[in-house]
Amino acid sequence: MPIRNAATSGTEVVCVYRLYLFKLPDVSLLGTLRGMEIFLQKTDILLLLIGFLLIVIGMIIRWWQAKRRRDRKNNWKISSLYKGKKKTRRRFPLWFHLVGIGVLVILCVPLTHAASSVPQRIVYNGHLLNAGGEAITTSHTVRFSLWSSADFVTSDVSGTGAINTTAATYADWKEAFTVTPNAQGYFTVTLGSAEALPDFAALAPSVLNNLHLQIEVKAAGSDATAYELLDVDSADTAVDRAPLSSVPNALNADLLDQRDIGTGSGSIPLLGDGGLLPTSTIPGATNLETFTLDSDGTAADKISLQFGGSLAKTITYDIGLDAFVFNAGIEVQGTVSGSVLHAEQELTSSGTLVVEGTTQMHGALTIADGAGLAASGDLLTNGNITVNSDNGAADAVLTFGNDAGAETVKFLDAEGRFEFSDDVHVTENLTASGSLTVEGQTTLKSNASVDGNLTVTGLINGVDITQITSSADNSHLKVSTGAGLSVSVARGDYRLGGNVTQFAGSTVVVPDDVTSYLFFTSTGVTISPVGFPADRMNIPLAAVVSSGGKVVSVTDRRVFNSDDSERTVTRTFEPMYEGSAFEGDGSENVGQLIVDHSGATLRNFYQWESTRGTLQDYDILLRVALPEDFVRWAATPFTLDYRSGSADANLNQADITVYDTAGAEATLSGDSAQDLANTSWTTASFGFAGAPTWAASGEVVIRIKVSSKDGSPMQIGRLTLRYVEVLSE
Known about the structure:
Elements: H1 31-42, H2 45-72, E1 97-98, E2 103-107, E3 121-129, E4 140-147, E5 170-179, E6 186-191, H3 205-208, E7 212-219, E8 228-229, E9 242-243, E10 302-307, E11 313-318, E12 323-326, E13 353-355, E14 359-361, E15 373-375, E16 379-381, E17 396-400, E18 407-412, E19 417-420, E20 430-432, E21 436-438, E22 448-450, E23 454-456, E24 459-460, E25 463-464, E26 486-489, E27 492-496, E28 499-503, E29 506-509, E30 514-521, E31 524-528, E32 539-547, E33 550-556, E34 566-573, E35 580-583, E36 592-598, E37 603-609, E38 616-625, E39 630-644, E40 652-659, E41 667-670, E42 682-689, E43 699-708, E44 714-726
Parallel strand pairs: 13-15, 14-16, 20-22, 21-23
Antiparallel strand pairs: 1-3, 2-3, 3-6, 4-5, 4-7, 7-8, 7-9, 10-11, 11-12, 17-18, 18-19, 24-25, 26-29, 27-28, 30-31, 30-32, 32-33, 34-44, 35-38, 36-37, 37-44, 38-43, 39-42, 39-44, 40-43, 41-42
């Protein structure tokens, strides 16, 4: 039927739909044409001829109406009609009119199956006539575009006349053709021949179900602003484009979403007898990560995957056992891992068998040549474990530990004996029915019974066995302890740290091959191989050096009244710290440092604040002199109180550094000394790790770096030092 322009010039443009009698391509989304194809296949040829006759009659009537209008008005003006105030796009000119019945036939050229990648095509036939009904044969440009709305709005084109591809209803396709109609005014274009049509199968249903074709015409060579819209309904301001609609018969298309029955890629398999997939249509694989059996969870006993009919080999998940069951052997070419591996028959591994839990073997475990058995848990067996079962001429080795610290038990094939790579400790009797050879020192903490020979190539408690000979007085081997030196402290009262200790007396034995330091504490006489203690009160006694079972030297180290009394000193520094200084490190030091106090807590504090957008810092340095009677730091050497405007260390923070009396940075222990930040007053406690130098009368430097940005302040309060000193007489 004609689609008229709303212009008043009397010219008209008519779009004619022409039906083609050939199979349309698989474009199920454009159901209108599929319906046409089915209609033509089922309609009598006579009805088709009648349809064409009606079309011809309609064209004659249209020509007669145009002639009458020309007779009534011979001087119409050329103008354009705008549909309402919202329309700024010109409509198709009154001196142009599409006459006849436009033919819109959608087909793919060439014909392909759904799986083909050849683009789709739309054949559009048009007939151009002037206001006098005469054919237009001059060159014109026709522009087509797809939209998800029937309504044209001004923003759908730019100021230059171009299609606005960012418009909300633009369906991502446009194409323009410059055509020269034939002598009768007819022309034909193939939409999609230059710009591929969109993939209709990929379009959202909301777009696909509301797809419209927009057609515009201008004289060839003129600017894009000369394009004028073909308005399909001049009486309705909301309907400007032609819809692409389906017909009822298209719902019965023999393809589904461009897919056909077959065995190729993208084809639809067809179930055969018994609801089974024929072998020819079973897919070879799936690109999904999960394939689920018993997805509805109704299986109560077992879930199986079977291989072969008469073969009937299965992989079954036994719900009651909570385990997989294979009814045939398993060969694994890669890695097998899991918590429980149950094999009723033989378990063979040609590679490494790694067991992370407990392994129970009720039969034999065979490990092939070159393979390994690694277990991070226990290995339990009710049978035997045989090493080197083929009796090959090689040492059999049991290794304990890893490569970095492995110890071994070897059976040396050539020597015919066992060899332990480390000490052997026997808690009960050690019995040898043959020769017992000891190449190094041997310690037995229980009885040793030797029915044969005892051969010692080294020493026993420092005595060379080879130097012992028979004598008239029947001398024999005697074993002593260490160097044979015992040190005793008599019972009595002892004064340590100003306190009197009633001591009952004790005896200690000096070990061999070491320098021992003897000292007296409140618990009695004590031996240390590292020196006299610095962390508790003591009276040094002596330093004893022993070697080879003998005492080499004894040095008297007694210093009377040297440790009569100690005390712990606590020094508290309130802002402003006595002996403190302030400095910046040369960059990022913009801010304000003040001393203030909190009336609520009666607390003095330093406050550093900067309004810069990056962290600005400043240093508070406290130099403290240790007394000449300094002995050591107390258990908690020092504490520091702090508070900040934010708990985020990126906005404010404090960092603590301590330098020992040698000027070296000391390693701090206890609380973190970096990035301190908390909105409540917090006390951080610090100790010292490593081996810093602390000399009496020396100076300790404590550096407190405070940082702030964006007006978030950092506050530092009381600092407390604690150390031990000797009371002067």
